[in-house]
Amino acid sequence: MTTRTAERHRKTKETDITVRLNLDGTGEAKISTGVGFFDHMLEGFAKHSSIDLEVSAEGDLHIDQHHTVEDVGIVIGLAVADALGDMKGITRFGHAYIPMDETLTRASLDISKRPYLVWKAEFTRDKIGDFDTELFKEFFHAFAGNAGVCLHVENLYGTNNHHIAESCFKALARALKMAVAVDPRAAGAIPSTKGSLGS
């Protein structure tokens, strides 16, 4: 099987981002976004998806974190879509339940080329470390839209904001790992009764 890799670079007046990834990696991560807690989340995402991930981002953090976080989601999503190529033989669907102490989060996704996000996670703090908690949804929305996945993320219960956030990233990681896996029984076919994926 050809190794599924991609590199994407996106530069605007607000951010300059490069992403390299390997869907068939071992979870190695090299992350630098300028936002410490976000780096931590992306390192966990790489580890638990087994995707080798490099992210280098420079953004207008003197304004706030919004552009950097959203644009990293865009570029990672684009790179995942590139690495998937024609999507022949992939499992397509994935799901995961991730417990972290008192917290439980579920993620389900469909690599359908019909992007959609259902986000059901609430935070009782405005920040975790220096990270604006309202930006979690922005990242997941940007990722889903540009990776072309239908993604549902739901925090079923929990009280610790760090646990809630981290379980969302890990749930996405494990669901994505399942969905991008090659199914040997698919014999290289497109995983759709239509014979194609997309609108």
UniProtKB/TrEMBL annotation:
Keywords: Amino-acid biosynthesis, Cytoplasm, Histidine biosynthesis, Lyase. Transmembrane segments: none annotated. The keyword DNA-binding does not apply. Its main location: cytoplasm. GO terms for cellular component: cytoplasm. Belongs to the imidazoleglycerol-phosphate dehydratase family. This is Imidazoleglycerol-phosphate dehydratase. It comes from Parvularcula maris.
